[in-house]
């Protein structure tokens, strides 16, 4: 019987539904088996990467393209708070700055949520910046005021222009400080990134720019921003016998100098009674390399507002730095490629930042002894087994990855060699990595700053962080990561110390060179800032510095 005869007789029409049903059942069974196999394959890949133990990417490991839609740690079901509890605004083109919403999936969720008042204040600031930012009508009107020696009446918008000083870490902490001052005083922050910071950060505010236009009229004065500058606020106070009330009309602009070597007149910027005069000056041109936020908490006029913005005082920089500073796509590429190649498969990520300010005063062997003493005393890494050439097999072996950020390669080479030549006492595998070693700090170099920003960000992805005393580089990393670091005291001499790296009490940066409070407040008696407000105390790593703490934890 041919096919035509089968169909005419009805035989084919009866058989066809049975064939379809059989096919569907077989297809479902095959699909279920394939899904089970696929799931087990992912588990095997994860175990293979863990067992590799060298820190190298396994040939069978998941490729970067397969990881695009997965949490880097492998937790695919993790819910990621892309807006950081409302800290970040919506409305950005995500492709223009991939890190803005993706970075949170590379680190643990922060337990520190921004206050509702801070979120509201940031949205209001964004509206102000959009109305007054570069190329707006308000900005153009404000520029015309610069040609006048004095100001009569008020202006639509007031500005604070940030100019760079020292290295990238100093620049980030001072920009964050300037932004908070702008929020407190209803000013618009514009920043001069020049050529050496071009393309490192994304724009932080939606539908506008914080970059100072290159045709800004006072750009040629930026290099003269030094103590005693003729256009500085400190100089104005000096020639008026420290009495600002004798100045009948405010100038159209003032230089504010708050770098490490500022003089006693410049320090009077923090004087509460003179804030009203500064509010009448449309343009403040600021130069600073300091995190001067802690002193803002000592100014009575700001205290109530700051209390509402930051109920938890040790989270100020944590929120500011995550809000303002997002790696550009180029920088984010450096960060993610390093992370996926060396850190993604690690059970624990440890960051070690070694900043040596004077190599002659701090020899390599002494600094290395300090580092190893820190690791041993604080039990940050397992010790090596001097007796056995091979670690005993264990089901609980852990892969730990340590990233070393330093200008110099010697610390990396010694630590890597130590964990390669001997097994650990508990059988853990230790991968040691260093993204770069520039040997010297290159000021004014865009590539150097790009690498520095990438390494800061990589350190911030750590589970455990060790930073160097006095280092603003480390301050930024701990703020981004929301980490209380172990603070490595780099010895200035031929001996290491008994306390190589005590745990920091706060993740806030230190204001290294604050003014003496009794000079600012016109009191004769020297006062401990802790007696004024409980959350401003002496820094752990700088005896004359001050920083913010959570008073409840002191």
Task: Provide a concise account of the structure shown.
The protein has helices spanning 3-9, 11-52, 64-67, 99-102, 116-132, 137-145, 168-185, 233-239, 275-279, 293-296, 300-309, 316-324, 329-343, 364-377, 410-421, 446-460, 472-481, 517-520, and strands at 158-163, 187-191, 253-257, 283-287, 348-354, 399-406, 429-433, 464-468, 486-488, 536-538, 546-548.
Kindly list the characteristics that best describe this protein.
554 residues, alpha/beta, 5-stranded parallel sheet, 18 helices, 11 strands, 37% helix, disordered N terminus
Shape: globular
Report the biggest beta sheet as strand number plus sense, adding barrel if it closes.
5 strands, parallel
Mean pLDDT: 85
Q: Helix tally? A: 18
Distance between the ends: 95 Å
| Radius of gyration based on Cα positions | 29 Å
Spatially, the strands of the biggest sheet line up as: 7-6-5-8-9
Helix/strand class = alpha/beta
Show unreliable segments.
Answer: 1-17, 29-71, 73-78
Helicity level: 25-40%
Order of helices and strands: HHHHHHEHEHEHEHHHHEHEHEHEHEHEE
β-strand percent reads 5-15%
Extended strand count: 11
């Amino acid at each position: 019987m041919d096919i035509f005869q089968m169909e005419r007789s009805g035989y084919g029409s009866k058989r066809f539904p049975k064939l379809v049903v059989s096919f569907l059942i077989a297809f479902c069974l095959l699909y279920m088996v394939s899904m089970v196999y696929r799931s087990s394959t992912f588990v095997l890949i994860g175990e293979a990467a863990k067992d590799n133990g060298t820190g190298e990417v396994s040939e069978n490991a998941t490729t970067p393209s397969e990881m695009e839609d997965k949490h880097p740690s492998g937790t695919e079901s993790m819910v990621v708070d892309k807006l950081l509890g409302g800290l970040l605004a919506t409305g950005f083109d995500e492709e223009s700055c991939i890190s803005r919403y993706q970075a949170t999936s590379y680190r643990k969720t922060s337990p520190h949520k921004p206050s509702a008042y801070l979120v509201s204040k940031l949205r209001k600031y964004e509206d102000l910046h959009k109305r007054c930012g570069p190329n707006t009508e308000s900005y153009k009107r404000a520029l015309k005021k610069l040609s006048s020696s004095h100001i009569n009446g008020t202006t639509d918008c007031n500005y604070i222009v940030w100019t760079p000083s020292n290295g990238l870490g100093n620049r980030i902490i001072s920009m964050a400080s300037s932004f908070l001052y702008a929020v407190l005083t209803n000013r618009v922050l514009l920043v001069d990134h020049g050529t050496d910071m071009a393309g490192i950060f994304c724009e932080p505010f939606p539908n506008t720019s914080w970059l100072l236009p290159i045709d800004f009229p006072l750009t040629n004065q930026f290099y003269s921003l030094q103590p005693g500058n003729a256009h500085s606020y400190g100089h104005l106070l000096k020639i008026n016998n420290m009495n600002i009330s004798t100045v009948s009309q405010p100038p159209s602009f003032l230089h504010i100098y708050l770098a490490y070597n500022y003089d006693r007149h410049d320090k009077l910027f923090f004087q509460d009674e003179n804030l009203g005069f500064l509010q009448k000056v449309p343009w403040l041109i600021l130069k600073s390399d300091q995190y001067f936020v802690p002193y803002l908490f000592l100014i009575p006029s700001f205290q109530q507002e700051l209390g509402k913005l930051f109920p938890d005082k040790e989270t100020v920089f944590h929120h500011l730095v995550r809000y303002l500073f997002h790696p550009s796509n180029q920088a984010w590429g450096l960060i993610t490629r390093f992370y996926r190649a060396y850190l993604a498969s690690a059970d624990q990520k440890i960051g070690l930042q070694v900043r040596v300010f004077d190599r002659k005063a701090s020899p390599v062997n002494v600094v290395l002894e300090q580092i190893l003493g820190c690791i041993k005393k604080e039990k940050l890494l397992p010790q090596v087994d001097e007796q056995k050439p091979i670690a005993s097999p264990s089901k609980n072996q852990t892969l730990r990855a340590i990233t070393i950020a330093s200008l110099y390669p010697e610390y990396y080479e010694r630590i890597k060699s130590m964990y390669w030549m001997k097994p650990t006492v508990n059988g853990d595998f230790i991968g040691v990595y260093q993204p770069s070693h520039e040997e010297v700090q290159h000021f004014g170099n865009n590539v150097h700053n790009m690498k520095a920003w990438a390494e800061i960000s990589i350190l911030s992805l750590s589970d455990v962080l060790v930073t160097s005393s006095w280092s603003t580089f480390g301050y930024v990393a701990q703020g981004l990561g929301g980490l209380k670091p172990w603070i490595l005291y780099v010895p200035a001499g031929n001996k290491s110390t008994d306390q190589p790296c005590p745990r920091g009490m706060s993740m806030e940066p230190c204001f290294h060179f604050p003014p003496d409070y009794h000079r600012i407040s016109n009191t004769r008696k020297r006062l401990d800032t802790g007696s004024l407000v409980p959350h401003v105390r002496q820094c752990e790593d700088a005896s004359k510095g001050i920083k913010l703490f959570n008073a409840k934890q002191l």
